[in-house]
Specification:
- It is a single chain.
- By secondary structure, this protein is of the alpha/beta class.
- Helices cover 32% and strands 24% of the residues.
- The chain contains nine helices and eleven strands.
- A six-stranded mixed sheet has the order 7-8-9-4-10-11, sandwiched between helices. Strands 1, 2, 3, 5 and 6 form a five-stranded antiparallel sheet that branches.
- A hairpin with a 2-residue loop joins β1 and β2.
């Protein structure tokens, strides 16, 4: 029996008669990288917003670690260990990388608003902050001001600030969007590295990334699940190829 960390049952979201997400049954296995893909307008972002409680479902349930979290607020599920990256963990551009990660650590400790305290009282967090920066390959620029970083390294910093919150389940929303090829490869490998010992659910357009690092792929189309399985299986699914305006040679094409 698979160890399921996050599960949805008939998850549905309607907006004034339009069904954006329709009876989605998702089962994310603990310790895996699970990708949510689909053509534009497939309902991926709406689904993500439901899972992180930025939207309330019309019907259906969401269960995390056996607890029904369907009606919980975003802050409640964050305390449970469901942390969404790249949106809620946006970095502060005029703080150093070290200071950004330290803020993430403060949030976890519940001392987020102690900005008026002497900086020396936060020095106890420095060692952990440096360890997190080391994990994402940023120790060489720990004291650099964040605004000076190239785009790909800002994304790496966002992963570090998310890790500071000690997520049990990390939700990554389009982690490689807007990146050049080199940055895409670097961030994909970084996601693979930080997935050790935790579970990742990601929305991603880039098929190269998905095929390289995802254990399971769920394909959405018009708000409903079209197919699910490993990339090798999903990429040969005729319906999936058609949904992506794919090819007849048995391989899913296209990064975006």
């Amino acid at each position: 029996m698979a160890d399921i960390i996050l599960q949805t049952s008939d998850l549905t979201k309607e907006f004034k008669g339009f069904t954006a997400v329709s009876k989605v049954n998702l089962a994310v296995q603990r310790g895996t990288i699970h990708a949510l893909i689909g053509p534009n307008g497939a309902g991926k972002t709406t689904c993500f917003n439901l899972l992180t409680k930025f939207l309330e479902p019309t019907t259906g349930t969401i269960t995390f670690n056996g607890h029904d979290i369907t009606r919980e607020r975003p802050a409640q599920i964050a305390r449970r260990g469901v942390i969404r990256s790249f949106q809620i963990s946006a970095v502060f551009p005029h703080l150093s990388l070290m200071e950004n990660v330290r803020l993430g650590l403060q949030r976890k400790l519940g001392v987020s608003y102690h900005f008026w305290k002497s900086e020396r009282t936060l020095e106890s967090l420095n060692e952990r902050a440096l360890a997190l920066l080391d994990q994402v390959g940023l120790t060489d620029v720990a004291h650099e001001i964040t605004v000076n970083l190239p785009y790909g390294r800002k994304r790496a910093l966002e992963i570090a600030t998310t890790l500071a919150m000690e997520p049990e389940l990390m939700l990554l929303d389009e982690p490689t969007q807007g990146m050049g090829h080199e940055d895409v490869d670097r961030v994909a490998q970084l996601i693979k590295k930080v997935s050790q010992g935790r579970t990742i659910l990601m929305v991603e357009h880039n098929m190269g990334v998905v095929s390289t690092i995802a254990d399971t792929i769920t394909v959405l189309q018009r708000g409903a699940v079209l197919a699910e399985g490993p990339y090798a299986e999903v990429s040969r699914n005729r319906q999936v190829m058609e949904a992506y305006m794919g090819t007849t040679d048995g391989q899913l094409q296209g990064a975006h």
